[in-house]
Structures are given as structure tokens and as C-alpha cells.
Design brief:
Elements: H1 2-7, H2 9-17, H3 23-40, H4 56-76, H5 82-118, H6 122-133, H7 138-145, H8 149-166, H9 168-184
Length: 185
């Protein structure tokens, strides 16, 4: 079986290079494909169309899966040269001050909204929490509680309006610190 696969070695390398990898990486993928096929394919007929012709699609999928698994492994790791580590640490320490401001302003905004919602009438508060915290749609709330959709919509719209009016200052601080954080990265 390996002899038949090796006959089309150049085609496999070309196929692997179509994934956007270098010649060296393509050869690695092809070698891994050889190992995987010989290890996991007991019956050579599984990778053959007929007695003479290989199932190119099977080989393609095997190599694509190998490429994707290697690609995703590489994404999880950060590769830094030793010279860059100090630069990254210095940049990170500057950013951490900015992100503390961002987190504080975000927490202040959320606390303001939660305090405001806690002061509402129980019905308004309950609808708000069901819709925004439990992530239930207005239509579903209406269907399950038999409250009219327009009543739910009006209650939530009025609540949003109250929040916008009473938390402008906190929102502006949050927005400003967010812009500073985005610029720092």
C-alpha cells in the first residue's frame, strides 16, 4: 500500500502546498499522511477507487486534517524570540494600567445599571432580568407568561431609556477608557 502512495509523492506534496505551506511543511504533512494511512487503514481497498486507482479525495482529507490540527496547535502557542520578551513585558506593564481603568469604568457602569434596575417596580425588574440576564426573547416571554408583546416591549424600552438618561456619565468614562485601551494595544 505504501508503495502505491509513494508513486504519487510529488502530487501529494503539491496538494499539501495548496494549503499555503512551504515545501518543507508540505513534505512533513505528506510524511505524516503516510504514517497515518499505514497505521489506521487496515484494508487497502478503503483508499482505492478500484484495483489500480487511489482515492485522491481520501488522501486530500487526511492531509487537510493533519494541516488543520497542526495549524490549530500552533495558534495556541505564542512564539517569541528571547530578545522580544523584555519588550513585550514592558509594553504589557504599560497596558495593564490602562486596562485597570477600563475594568474599573466597566464595573462602575454595570453597578450603576444594576442599582438602577434594583430600584424599579418588581414587574419591570423581573422582565428586565428575564430578558437581559436570562437571554429570553420578548416573544418567548410573551408566549410563556401570556403578557402581551407590546407591554413587554414598552416596559423594556422605557427601562432602556431610563438607563441611558441616568448612566450617561459612567458610559462616557467607560467609552473613553475603552478607546484608550484599544489604542494601547
Amino acid at each position: 500500500m505504501i508503495d502505491r502512495l509513494a508513486e504519487k509523492h510529488e502530487a501529494w506534496v503539491h496538494m499539501a502546498m495548496s494549503f499555503g505551506v512551504t515545501q518543507e511543511s508540505a513534505n512533513e504533512i505528506v510524511q505524516e499522511m503516510y504514517i497515518r494511512v499505514t497505521k489506521y487503514v487496515d484494508d487497502p481497498e478503503r483508499i482505492m477507487y478500484n484495483e489500480k486507482e487511489l482515492n485522491n479525495y481520501y488522501i486530500y482529507v487526511t492531509m487537510r486534517n493533519l494541516f488543520l490540527s497542526n495549524f490549530h496547535k500552533g495558534k495556541k502557542r505564542n512564539h517569541y524570540s528571547t530578545e522580544d520578551i523584555n519588550d513585550e513585558l514592558i509594553n504589557f506593564s504599560n497596558v495593564s494600567d490602562v486596562s485597570d481603568e477600563y475594568e474599573d469604568s466597566f464595573d462602575a457602569l454595570i453597578n450603576k445599571i444594576e442599582d438602577m434596575v434594583d430600584s424599579w417596580y418588581w414587574y419591570d425588574k423581573k422582565l428586565w432580568n428575564i430578558h437581559f440576564k436570562n437571554k429570553m426573547s420578548m416573544r418567548r416571554i410573551s408566549r410563556e407568561t401570556r403578557i402581551s408583546l407590546s407591554s413587554i416591549f414598552n416596559t423594556l424600552s422605557n427601562g432602556k431609556k431610563k438607563i441611558r438618561e441616568n448612566s450617561k456619565e459612567e458610559y462616557e468614562k467607560y467609552k473613553q477608557s475603552k478607546d484608550e485601551t484599544d489604542g494601547a494595544w
